[in-house]
Structures are given as structure tokens and as C-alpha cells.
Amino acid sequence: MAGQGSGGNVIAAICSFFIPGLGQLVQGRIMAALFFFVVTAVSYALGATVILFFMWFVGAIFHLWAIIDAARFRGVD
């Protein structure tokens, strides 16, 4: 990636918008991609239950974090 604000980061952020962690995977950050996907998916799944409805909010926060993280990634210089 060329750096923050580059076209690659925009594409990665768009990917993370649709599937959390996909943008990090596009950038080659496998562990970050796995973290964002699993935490967001589990939070949304728990939020689908009536008992843990508040987990939708936690999932949304991690989803937004995944998008912002993909957009602001600078890479190794």
C-alpha cells in the first residue's frame, strides 16, 4: 500500500464495509482480519438473540473500527 489515503486503502475500507476484516485481508494483515471478522460476527450473532440484544451495538462498533482501521493503515516503511 502506498500509505494513508491511497487508493488501496479506500478499496480496503470499502471491502471492510461489506465484510468486516476483508479490508485487512486485502492489505495482507491476516491476524487483524481474523480478529475483526470473528469479533464482529460473534457480536452480531449474539445480538440476534433476545437476551443479548445490546451486542448489536458492540458489533457495530467493531465493524466501524474495522473500516476505519483499513482506511488509516500506513504499512511498513
UniProtKB/TrEMBL annotation:
Query: Which terms are listed as keywords in the entry?
Result: Membrane, Transmembrane, Transmembrane helix
Q: Which domain of life is it from?
A: Bacteria
Locate the transmembrane regions by residue number: 6-23, 53-71
Q: What is this protein called?
A: YqaE/Pmp3 family membrane protein
Q: Which organism is it from?
A: Alteromonas alba
